[in-house]
Amino acid sequence: MKLTGSYQINLKKQNVWDALNDSAVLKKAIPGCEAFKKNSDTEFTVTATNKIGPFNATFTGDIKLKELNPPNSYKITGSGNSPVGFASGEAIVNLEDCESGTKLIYNVEANVGGKIAQVGSRLIDMTAKKMADIFFGKFSKLIEPQITIARLNDKIEEHTLPEKNASISSNKTLIYLIIVISLAISGYYFLA
Question: For the domain that residue 18 is a member of, what is the CATH number?
Answer without folding.
Answer: 3.30.530.20
